């Protein structure tokens, strides 16, 4: 079993629900349904696939089902809606289509070019000089076909550059998908955390109200001081303020979630009730294996590697462009000036074009391409170094979250018992209001810490999956919600 699997992740892509998320391939695949042409070079087929346009509400070439906002949404449905509706998905797909078309343009250099030029005009001469019908027409037709035989690898390098840029665009598309998935997970659990925080705030408000009523009753009975009543009333007012703040935070979180899903922020959304928290899964101790897996799976590193290869191909193309080219051309020219004169000429020739001097421009193009490759290589090395930090931070955050959940659970149990005892002692007249209010405040704080620990744990799992490069539908389905506690 891999270290990532032992951490609660799965590298098996799209093994769960068949939602639109599974239609986004985290590889370099382009749509299966596309406009294709098969060309040939040296007897071998060259497949040029240019994806068709993707309208709004589509993932790949498949229409997405609109989310039913009348029902409570699961995490999988939130992720589905995010990929279907968020404009970043369509933007990344369109960029891949642009680069796929550039591959087709590069491959067109292996085909001959044919040009047909047709012209006609009417001529009028002075009557005394006319030797033919006046006015007379002149019709010309010229067809020229040419084919590049040899160019020292310029075509090959240009095609390789386009191919690598297509790989980079496809990997960048995967980066966008994983980034959106992580944003969806964060927004989803932030809403869940704010729902739980609001419930805890209301419970704390009810407890403060009960303490205030008890203090008021004891004050009216003459067994408590006015200070007890005022302190309880102040705590009650503070609890009410905390509840109002929690309500506002929840509304803000709902707006953020709607924005991530690609819908209007004021659109009402309901989520499944996620109250059954389970202990987070253990974390593997093999951090080295996780980092190594990340270097093999991270799409941003794949995109950067493709950019380096594209830059090298650009160097090769620049060098070849400064060398001679050999072409073959055939033409046919037909001209009909009148019934008196006509011409029909055919030619077949071989052309060798030798660049002699162009102001040192080829030299500087090569230098520019070489410098670009150095930039791309440095960017690749920076990403490779950043990957280790990303995995390390996410790994440590997940370990911390696991330990925090366990500690927070113990803290809540202790704070609940302390609050119950303190309130009972005060009502029985053997305790003081300060102890009671402190115990209730400690309970409210403990519940907030437990909620935050669960939020951090679930987000940390998704963050580690993204850091390793395996954040996909299968991993999303392992995160807890009402259907998968």
TrEMBL record:
Signal peptide: 1-34
Residue ranges of coiled coil: none
GO BP, sorted A to Z: killing of cells of another organism
Predominant location category: membrane
Keywords: Cell outer membrane, Cytolysis, Hemolysis, Membrane, Signal, Transmembrane, Transmembrane beta strand, Transport
Top-level taxon of origin: Bacteria
Protein's cellular compartments: Cell outer membrane
GO molecular function: efflux transmembrane transporter activity; porin activity
Family: Belongs to the outer membrane factor (OMF) (TC 1.B.17) family.
Protein name stated in the entry: Protein CyaE
Gene source species: Methylovorus glucosotrophus (strain SIP3-4)
